Amino acid sequence: MPGITREEVAHLARLARLELKDEELDHFATQLDDIIGAVARVSEVAEQDVPPTSHPLPLTNVMRPDEVRPSLTAQQALSGAPAQEQQRFKVPQILGED
After folding, report:
1. DSSP assignment of 24-63
2. Apex CA 55: angle with CA 51 and CA 60, to 5°?
């Protein structure tokens, strides 16, 4: 398997609009070649009947059922707020948008 070249790394860097130094090109070429080799080894081992997965174990969300519980009224929640408007907390604008 031919390794990835400095020229290919430089081309990828140009496409990604990255400016790389000469020593970085060599460093990334070695790293990318190692990564490509590792992926190739995994591809050799993978069987056709094994579906691709994102995680080795099955995952399920553990959620509790929704229950209505007593909570604060709007007035109680806003009672300690330094500023409020239309039954909501009023905070300083931070993004400069209207």
Report:
1. HHHHHHHHHHHHHHHHHHHHHH--TTS---SSSS------
2. 105
Please answer whether residues 7 and 28 qualify as being in contact, where contact means their C-beta atoms are separated by less than 8 angstroms. Answer: no
pTM of the model: 0.45
Amino acid at 56: P
Tokens, residue 1: 């398997």
Contact present, 32 and 4 (Cβ < 8 Å): yes
pLDDT digits (tens, 9 = 90+) for 43-85: 777 677 777 777 888 888 888 899 999 999 999 999 999 999 9
